[in-house]
Amino acid sequence: MAVTASEAQGGEIPHVYPGRAAVVSWIFFDWAAQPYFTLITTFVFAPYFASFVAPDPASGQALWGFATAAAGLMIALLSPVLGAIADASGRRKPWIAGFGSLLVVGACLMWFGKPGDASVIPQLLLAYAIASVGVEFATVFNNAMMPTLVPPDRIGRLSGTGWATGYIGGILSLVLVLGFLAASPDTGRTLFGLVPLFGLDPVTHQGDRITGPLTGIWFIIFVTPMFLFTPDYPAQRPIRAAVREGLNGIKRTLAELPKQRNIATFLLANMIYTDGLVSLFAFGGIYAAGTFGWRTIQIGTFGILLAIAGTFGAWLGGKLDDMLGPKRVVAGSLLILLFALAAILLVDKDSILFVEVAPPTPGGALFSGAAERAYLVLGCLIGAAGGPLQAASRTLLIRLAPRDRIAQYFGLFALTGKVTSFIGPLLIGAITAVSASQKAGMALLVVFFAAGLALLMRVRE
């Protein structure tokens, strides 16, 4: 192990870094966790829930938004506290294991979300909230390991490579579901024209529901190398002492934060634009399902294209991060997101930017309508910008935060990413419910990205 006990206890970032196996194994955390966001929250299970479990797509979007808000509030309240405790105790892996278990359990329970069964909705939303809390907290502690793995001038590349690798994992998991597991109820065939594996029933949407257990198993398999090969800080103090020290530390940090205007401004900007991004990803598939009537195969194919765009975007963003600095990468990503979102709001089934076009042909080829193809292009822009935005944000935090309190600041980073994360889904859910219009709910996100960009411009890197 390249990290010595004295270095860890002193809170300094080591000058001797672990080998390639440790770094690659750490990168595979993103690969392990990404299917949760790809399969569950965006492209398969969330649209399935809104279209087939909830009474109608609008109320489904609203219910999903309220559950997302509840999970986000819990994450916001506990992230900085847990990060401070982890800094005081020294170790990261036990926290990743514990919260990863919540992800696995919550995801597996989604199998029981049968179509048209309203009695399972409360339990299903609770399982979703538990899994969301688990994956987000595990990510906090995984991020905190990053400065120990590579020198500072390679942090951007490491972060971008992690996001790109995660996108590839998301693509492969989506191809697995669409090509071999989820079939159209009309044809009984998957995207590849095959009968679903394991006898999964298309009529009861078992191919959609299997994404929960698949996500849990996938996480267990691919997070294991990180536990085996990536070094952790040694334990510094017993857990009780770590809790006391951590709570005192977070009090000191919060008291100092108003005096540190630069990092406070960044955390505020991150709070706002991350809320917009999370809401956009959470409702993008649901919005497409309601606008174009897309089902699992169409939404999943859309997801594959977005993930491919995101892979290249994250990889390129990592290189630009080291060359230009993370602030420029974040700002450029926000501009792209603003343009793409504004354009998407002007795309409907039979119009693009107020110009009427022929609607999709019923039973025609995949994405046969001009509006559908425009939505694909704009969605790929969102995918290409979302990866660099998130990857460069965490490297910008590493450049701004005190090194001896990195997990604590990643807890604050998660706090600012989540403390208002319930507001975006809550407002989208409320506006959608009141107006019975998905477009009205999504239009709110323009404000989030614009405000986040304005605050980011005041941050000195």
Give your account of this protein's structure.
The structure is a single chain. The protein has 461 residues and is an all-alpha fold. 73% of the residues lie in helices and 1% in strands. The protein is built from 18 helices and 3 strands. The chain has helices spanning 5-10, 20-43, 45-53, 57-89, 93-108, 121-144, 155-181, 206-209, 211-229, 239-256, 261-292, 296-324, 326-344, 370-400, 406-418, 423-435, 438-443, 445-456; strands at 347-348, 351-352, 355-356. It has a 3-stranded antiparallel beta sheet, covered by helices on one side. Strand 2 and strand 3 form a beta hairpin. The longest helix is centred in the N-terminal third of the chain and has 33 residues, at 57-89. The model is unreliable at 1-14 (pLDDT under 50).
